[in-house]
Amino acid sequence: RIEAINFDTSEIDAAIGVASHDLPGLICHRLHAEELVVILPPEAAADSQAWSPARISEEVLLNVANNPHAWGEWFSHHGLPHRSMRLGPSFELTSHLIQAVRAGIGIGLVPRILVEEELAKAELYSPGVAFASQRSYYLIYPPRNEALPSLRAFRGWLLEQI
């Protein structure tokens, strides 16, 4: 789901989403910080020494529409001037951005959890370590749903896993 969830007009009891803070009017259980990694096509691994933050900053940077500040956070994290950002296309879905990276259109910055398998199989290459963004994953739901047996069971199980 791309847009914000409206619990008043949908039949959704709870959701897992990403936010930079608790959401007013909802019960929010912080699950973990969002960790972002730079991704490149697998061929980039052959020249792994060349992919410094300064080099990455010179490339076309692909963005996911629901996280427009990700590259700005990354530039700040690495002490790079924001004015040197070369933002390329923005994608509605992270999966589309990943396909664009594979096609050589640019470099992506995505949640590590979404590309762990591709990185392990060397289907994508990441030249650096993950960094914590300013966002976190949350289990969210309206207070009226707190006592639902199915939600209580799911919430209990989920929070035990973390």
TrEMBL record:
Pfam families tied to this protein: LysR_substrate
Question: Where's the LysR substrate-binding domain?
Answer: 10-161
User: What is this protein's name?
Assistant: LysR substrate-binding domain-containing protein
This protein's species is marine sediment metagenome
For molecular function, the Gene Ontology terms on record are: DNA-binding transcription factor activity; sequence-specific DNA binding
Q: Which GO terms describe its biological process?
A: DNA-templated transcription
Family from the record: Belongs to the LysR transcriptional regulatory family.
